[in-house]
């Protein structure tokens, strides 16, 4: 597939800074970035050039928005022209993080209805234990694509 983009964006796209050390810095600090990022805030380190921030913010947003679509993310449309391996890796991680965080937010949790008291539950639904099972704490998506399938239900 070829990257078909608006010709007016050519200057921004060429200025993806493929040899800039910030790409390597982002990859090295990915654990911190993913831990500090939320669905609403993509936490990149200070000093990352605006052009690189733009690519990663777009990838993060596409990942979040992909939950409502039936098709897979087309990463090729997120890449700059003449993408390097490290750029592709960082962009894919940003999109996957956005998608994982959106899944985490949308994951249903089972909570007892506030109008039902624990005693009523015990008497209405006899169980072998004397306590009502409590829902476990939801796991936080750690930003690693290897764990992504764990959050799909």
TrEMBL record:
Residues 120-140 are annotated as: Disordered. Residues 124-133 have a biased composition (Polar residues). This is Uncharacterized protein. It comes from Golovinomyces cichoracearum.
